[in-house]
Amino acid sequence: MISLFARKIERFTKLPDDDHAALEAACDRTRRYRAREDIIREGDKPKSIDIIMSGWAARYKVIEDGRRQIVAFLLPGDLFDAEAFLLPAMDHSIAAVTPVTCAEIPRETMDDILRRQPRLAQAMWRDTLVALSIQREWTLSLGQRSALERIAQLLCELFLRLGAVGLTRGDSCDFPLTQSDLAEATGLTSVHVNRTLQELRARGLVSLSGRELTVPDLAALKAASAFNGNYLHLDD
Amino acid sequence: MISLFARKIERFTKLPDDDHAALEAACDRTRRYRAREDIIREGDKPKSIDIIMSGWAARYKVIEDGRRQIVAFLLPGDLFDAEAFLLPAMDHSIAAVTPVTCAEIPRETMDDILRRQPRLAQAMWRDTLVALSIQREWTLSLGQRSALERIAQLLCELFLRLGAVGLTRGDSCDFPLTQSDLAEATGLTSVHVNRTLQELRARGLVSLSGRELTVPDLAALKAASAFNGNYLHLDD
DNA sequence: CGGTCCCTTGACAGCCGTCAACTACCGTGG
DNA sequence: CCACGGTAGTTGACGGCTGTCAAGGGACCG
């Protein structure tokens, strides 16, 4: 059941069988969320650590006057709420983008894992470090890249991350984000995202319609965004 | 010697004495860097995990055409290079802003800590989660805040983080960043940072001269940047 | 006293935001 | 069947925040 997550963290170190068993046993329940439903809100103190089994979600932060920023996308296989386990309370919110199914690891189980499965705990810590690396790249993007580069960069990232968990079909993949979602993630307005997507299409870099993204020439899209995939830590 | 770091991670859970001893024993050497010297470069695979004992450093990323973004500041008590321990190679660089002194934990010692001191490992993981939370706030800032808000926000953050490790004096603190540093951290140009600082001074929100920052009214500065300090996880 | 780094200032331009209206699509229900 | 409403996408006109370019000033230092 937790195969996607296991596969992801085993990119670095193969886990022994008892860690697999512990992880398998830890995910005792699943939970479903509707599209656009909040999964956790800022200030909450959730009782479990979740792994996304299917669907897309978005971490977002709001400023009191209503401005809103998506700070990360969560894809199948991604672990989240480790922060809720180790920190006092959530400092941001998470919303489902599509219908989402999660596997839940209860807090008490996490306590056991930390004490008794150090390799598994280490793999989870490493997962946090990859998330941090991605967050740094978003900081770079928002600080330095133009609108076109930012959007191209984000599309590259999502395409590669989906590919890493086997969710691409050739040069295409599902793409449930609206232009407003893209705008909130890139710090642009949806109007400007719209114009920029037209530019990307005009250059033949992407085709994006009917909830499907096609990237005919990934190298070209990378070049357009000055993409450097090291930050994803997908290889080796 | 590692007191600042221990104090920082014990905000959440008191560590037992043997963890203290393990941490103390782990930091067997210190190393010094000159101001503006690179401490680690992208692609490196350092042999130790470092804790800053004194001075300021900056994590930064570059795009191949030369654009440069500071993605985090590292202050005394901060742990860094955990990513270098758990991930294949550095995906960014770190440079000293001032002269810096670091305590070094060798990789082999870290292996031992993970196996034998689960509470200490957990505290370090938590430290990574706080860094991730800060990185999310930077993403929010760059995506949504105006130039004035971004700079005010950053000044608030640095002032509070310095205060948490006892490095403020009343409403003042050392402030070694140049306007170019601020520009690279906020995604602005140094010209615009200059004008914006003048605006902040004109409003009486900060005074910044001779490497010293004074914040006469922290609440006012927070208000000017729509600051919400939850993300720092400094209390409780 | 020349050099370098940092800060400051002015004029101008451009990327992207704001505002507003319009189209397309789709599911619901009369 | 068509009216209806809501969401998503599109387009145009205009404005402003911030960048670019260029020059100059002040402080520190060898």
Please give a structural write-up:
The structure is a homodimer. With about 240 residues, the first copy, chain A, is of the alpha+beta class. Chain A has 9 helices and 12 strands. In chain A, the strands form 3 sheets. Chain A has a 4-stranded antiparallel sheet with strand order 1-8-3-6. A 4-stranded antiparallel sheet of chain A has the order 2-7-4-5. Chain A has a 4-stranded antiparallel sheet with strand order 9-10-12-11. In chain A, strand 11 and strand 12 form a beta hairpin. In chain A, helix 6 packs across helix 8 and helix 6 packs across helix 9. Chain A is globular, with a radius of gyration of 18 Å. Chain A starts with a helix and ends in an 11-residue tail after the last helix. The interface between A and B is large, with 52 and 52 residues. The structure holds a DNA duplex (30 and 30 nucleotides).
Measured on Cα atoms, how large is the radius of gyration of chain A? Answer: 18 Å
Q: Going across the major beta sheet of chain A, what is the strand order?
A: 1-8-3-6
Helix residue percentage of chain A: 40-55%
Helix/sheet category of chain A: alpha+beta
Low-confidence stretches of chain A: none
Biggest interface between chains: A-B, 52 and 52 residues
Oligomeric status = homodimer
Strand percentage of chain A lies at 15-25%
Task: Please work out how many helical segments of chain A DSSP would assign.
Answer: 9
Helix and strand run of chain A: HHEEEEEEHEEHHHEEHHEEH
Q: How many beta-strand segments of chain A?
A: 12
On the 0 to 100 scale, the average pLDDT of chain A is: 93
Ends distance of chain A = 24 Å
